[in-house]
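Q: Hi! Curious about what Carbohydrate ABC transporter membrane protein 2, CUT1 family looks like structurally. Here's the sequence.
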Amino acid sequence: MSEPAAINRGRTWPTHVVLSVGAATMVFPFAWQIILSLSTQSEATSATPTFPAAPNLDNYALVFERLPFLSQFWVSVLITVLRTVAQLVLCSMAGYAFARMRFRGRDALLAVTLSVLMVPSQVYLIPQYEIVESMQWLNTVQGVVAPGLFSAFGTFLMRQFFASLPIELEEAARLDGCNPFQVFWRVMLPLTRPGLVALAIITVLWSWNDLLWPLVVTTDGTRMPLSVGLASLQGERSTQIPLVMAASLLAMAPILVLFITLQRRVIEGIAHTGLK
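A: Let's find out. The predicted structure is below.
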């Protein structure tokens, strides 16, 4: 081994140790969740952590008996897809308008939009519920989806991406005869693909895990998303911990598969978001 290589290895091993400890810390809760899902209730509630004496998959089968799991799964998928598509379309159009178009009151309207980020979402809960109830959308997919079709954060994120693009691209497209919508759709929007990916990732995670609003507007077990279904497994006096762990893993599986499949694009999107 050459001397420079030995020196570099000597300098990097503390980094490897720190990263290994961090990785183990991150993975441990997930591994313990798997162990609990294979345990019995007495093993899961034991005062001293114990591994299951006879690991079994009974808790996974019990999930489908206690919950309308497939119905709730498809409701979650539908809600997530509708919210993600709507956010990509509406937030990108609003972001382009705030970044590139000139109209009276633009800066004031942007300030009002961004001020929404400073208000806790719980403040809107009762007014949104009254609106949805007046439209007779309780226990419906549209009632759950409606408040999440547009977001101030998504608009701000896409505005930053559009503002970073050179104006010469826009001018060249106009010289070639493109109208404003064609400039947006054919020239500018494809160049913000990292921003769209980042916004899609954030919206998917938020929508899949959203609990408070679906918990308020859905009471029918077959029309509520998985996040609310998991919450309903918690008892008033005691909770079947292995059952909840098994249901949580089943609910987590689609997001995990999606992350593994799109891992490279996920990291690129988040990295570009951090640079804005």
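A: A fun detail: The CA atoms of residues 226 and 251 lie 7 Å apart.
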